[in-house]
Amino acid sequence: MSVLVFNAGSSSLKFALFSGDGRDPASSGTIDLQRETSGFPAAVERALDRLGPAFALPGLPNGVGHRLVTGRRRDEPTA
């Protein structure tokens, strides 16, 4: 099983492909949005290119996730 994870911030897109036990990424990186791309769609394309062989295996990934930060305290309700 493998999971592709994104963490989009205001100035960068971090990404990692986890497989097996999920403790250490098989591949990961960061795209600087101001220096390397013209926005998030281009950053995702570049991230997939950088994953290269790790991402090209048949049936990968089994899931995709994105880290969400709400800006609230942990004990505040979100809904």
Q: Sketch the topology as an H/E string, one letter per element.
A: EEEHHE
Calculate Rg over CA atoms. 14 Å
User: What count of helical segments does DSSP give?
Assistant: 2
Strand percentage lies at: 25-35%
Written overview of the protein:
- This protein is of the alpha+beta class and 79 residues long.
- It contains two helices and four strands.
- It has helices spanning 33-36, 40-55; strands spanning 2-8, 12-19, 25-32, 63-66.
- A four-stranded mixed β-sheet has the order 3-2-1-4.
- Strand 1 and strand 2 (12-19) form a beta hairpin.
- The longest helix is centred in the middle third of the chain and has 16 residues, at 40-55.
- The chain is flat.
- The relative contact order is 0.26.
Which structural traits does this protein have?
4 strands; flat; four-stranded mixed β-sheet; alpha+beta; single chain; 79 residues
Question: What does this entry show, briefly?
Answer:
With 79 residues, the chain is an alpha+beta fold. The protein has helices at 33-36, 40-55, and strands at residues 2-8, 12-19, 25-32, 63-66. The model has no long low-confidence stretch (mean pLDDT 82).
